[in-house]
Amino acid sequence: MAGNVSEWTNAAFSETSYNMSSTINPIVEDDSNHRKVIRGGSWKDVAYFLQVSARDYEYADSARSYVGFRTVQDFLGTDIKGK
């Protein structure tokens, strides 16, 4: 999943979010903070950032060619029975 675009999240960015909340899901809800967390690497990043744990921010009202979203769909193939 990493490497195409960095993924927008719904969390407001804070440098200290991992210090003041759960490390499993550090969601910082702050409507006055317009910086949103982006995760994963994109085509413009060096290899170190091409992992889903990479975390940075962008302003919510800005568009960037390297930030987007990812969609997921269940596999719609046929079941092969008897093998």
**What string, H for helix and E for strand, traces the elements in order?**
EHEEE
Task: Please mark out the parts with pLDDT under 50 across 5 or more consecutive residues, or reply none.
Answer: none
> Rg to the nearest angstrom?
16 Å
Q: How would you characterize the largest beta sheet? A: 4 strands, mixed
Could you explain the architecture of this structure?
With 83 residues, the protein is mostly beta strands. The chain has 1 helix and 4 strands, in the order E-H-E-E-E. The protein has one helix at 17-20; strands at residues 6-12, 35-39, 55-59, 67-68. A 4-stranded mixed β-sheet has the order 3-2-1-4, with no helix packed on it. The protein is extended, with a radius of gyration of 16 Å. It starts with 5 loop residues before the first strand and ends in a 15-residue tail after the last strand.
Kindly list the characteristics that best describe this protein.
83 residues, 4-stranded mixed β-sheet, mainly beta, 4 strands
Brief characterization of the structure:
The protein is mainly β. It contains 1 helix and 4 strands, in the order βαβββ.
Topology:
Elements: E1 6-12, H1 17-20, E2 35-39, E3 55-59, E4 67-68
Parallel strand pairs: 1-4
Antiparallel strand pairs: 1-2, 2-3
